[in-house]
Amino acid sequence: MISMKDVYKKYPNGVVAANGISVDIRQGEFVYVVGPSGAGKSTFIKMMYSEEKPTSGDVIINGKNITKMKRNQIPQLRRELGVVFQDFKLLPKLSVFENVAFALEVIEEHPKVIKKRVMEVLDLVGLKHKMRMLPSELSGGEQQRISIARSIVNVPKIVIADEPTGNLDPENSWEIMKIFEEINTRGTTVVMATHNREIVNTIRKRVIAIEGGMIARDIDGGDYGYEG
């Protein structure tokens, strides 16, 4: 599903965030991406949905070499992925239902299909009863659940999450992880960058550790592996 081949990324300020990364992530895997701050985790994640372009090497998503894509092809790529951010990125003037439906409206899906899919994912994240509320009327944990619902409403094969529990308290973090586990159980590949040691050490999955722009560890059922 995801393949990086000898990927380098050097920023204009001289920082090397990816230094010869090669990795394969298979369909249906759940992968944590861990490492110290500044190690290159965010760059690694952002290259998967073409927010950052590698300086050299190939990034292949769903069989497509996205490093060779033209700029006008990137929106289509992102519609095939689910991306969840730390800061939710909900549209403040739209209701919960409208925020989730928006992802399908932009691809001109039929209104009946939109309603059915939105209600299904709101049920999955446990917020169908709040579908008419605005994001400002929800707690942080609820806003993140809506963000997840929006990311999966178009049934993506891959969900990419960048510190999805970073702004949440422990109770809400565990609730969010239950949703990601359920998504993964249904066959979706999940790649999650996280600093949450407790989650990584409790819900054991494949762990890719990045240090100095390189893969330092890649272990199935691994632990977080960093102090502090």
Describe the protein in words.
The chain has 228 residues and is α/β, with parallel strands linked by helices. The chain has a domain at 92-139 and 146-153. Helix content is 31%, strand content 25%. The chain has helices at residues 41-46, 74-79, 96-105, 111-124, 140-152, 170-185, 197-202, and strands spanning 2-10, 16-25, 30-34, 56-61, 64-65, 81-84, 158-162, 189-193, 206-211, 214-219. Strands 6-7-8-3-9-10 form a six-stranded mixed sheet. Strands 2-1-4-5 form a four-stranded antiparallel sheet. The longest helix is centred in the C-terminal third of the chain and has 16 residues, at 170-185. The mean pLDDT is 92. One of its GO terms (cellular component) is plasma membrane. Keywords: ATP-binding, Cell cycle, Cell division, Cell membrane, Membrane, Nucleotide-binding, Transport.
- Fraction of residues in β-strands: 25-35%
Main β-sheet description: 6 strands, mixed
Q: Compute the CA-based radius of gyration.
A: 17 Å
The strand order across the widest sheet is: 6-7-8-3-9-10
Oligomer: single chain
Which regions are unreliable across 5 or more consecutive residues at pLDDT < 50?
Answer: none
Compressed to H and E, one letter per element, the order equals EEEHEEHEHHHEHEHEE
- Which structural class is indicated by helix and strand composition? alpha/beta
Shape: globular
**How many alpha or pi helices?**
7
Distance between the termini: 33 Å
